[in-house]
Write a structure and sequence with these properties.
single chain; mainly alpha; 0% strand; membrane; transmembrane; transmembrane helix
């Protein structure tokens, strides 16, 4: 599905900013509607508004390791933790799907390599790839695998905690960015509603349209730059 992982919050924000902004700055409802077409094309063809799946897979991988670790801590093997999986309401659908897939592989006498490959497919992140390489070696060598799982969890939790702290720090900046981008639109909308004659010259003269165009371009640049500044990725 093309729209399954679309970040609709960003879509709505950009639709309001570019669509409503075009209407306010150029006094053209048609232009405001036409601006929405490129946004739709970007969603459909370029996946420009796709949600960052890295954090979802990262969190899902931690949940998977927690399940494995719970069974290893009571003396079970890695493969036994798969066999003894029982889905519950507290577990995500992603975990249930990967565990059922691993169980099917074991039912057809799947190799350790097949199990590790399935994990990499379910969690397409670098951390999962490193883990499966280590775990595959540990299983084939009959080495205690609990240490590998515990150490991996420690590292992943530290990374997740760091990300959450940075995200919390940037939350205020993201709010300030949203206010700064939307405030000019709100001001123009207020003036148009209360005293539209003040903006008449900006909509009817060549110089006025040039000023409004220049102002809107600056506003767009400000939004793009601020979006880049406050955007962080867990893998970076």
């Amino acid at each position: 599905m093309k729209f399954k992982n679309t970040n609709y919050k960003n879509v709505i924000i950009d639709a309001i900013f570019y669509g409503f902004g075009s209407y306010l700055f150029f006094d053209s409802l048609l232009l405001g509607v036409l601006v929405l077409i490129p946004i739709g094309l970007l969603i459909y063809y370029k996946k420009a508004y796709q949600s960052d799946l890295y954090y979802k897979n990262f969190s899902g991988f931690i949940e998977f390791l927690n399940h494995i670790n719970a069974h290893l801590s009571v003396g079970l093997t890695f493969k036994n933790s798969i066999i003894n999986f029982n889905a519950s309401k507290d577990q995500s659908r992603q975990l249930a799907e990967i565990m059922h897939a691993l169980h099917r592989i074991m039912n057809v006498n799947g190799t350790t390599g097949s199990l590790m490959k399935e994990i990499e497919t379910a969690y397409p992140i670098e951390e999962a790839k490193i883990f499966t390489n280590l775990m595959g070696t540990a299983i084939t060598s009959n080495v205690q695998s609990a240490y590998i799982v515990n150490k991996t969890l420690d590292i992943l939790y530290l990374k997740k905690e760091t990300y959450q702290e940075v995200e919390l720090i940037l939350f205020q900046k993201k709010m300030e960015q949203a206010i700064l981008c939307m405030a000019p639109l709100a001001i123009i909308a207020f003036i148009r509603t209360s005293a539209s004659e003040y903006l008449e010259i900006l909509y009817t003269t060549l110089q006025g349209r040039g000023i409004m165009t220049f102002a809107f371009v600056l506003l767009i640049l400000m939004k793009l730059i601020s979006d880049y500044i406050v955007k962080i990725k867990l893998e970076s």
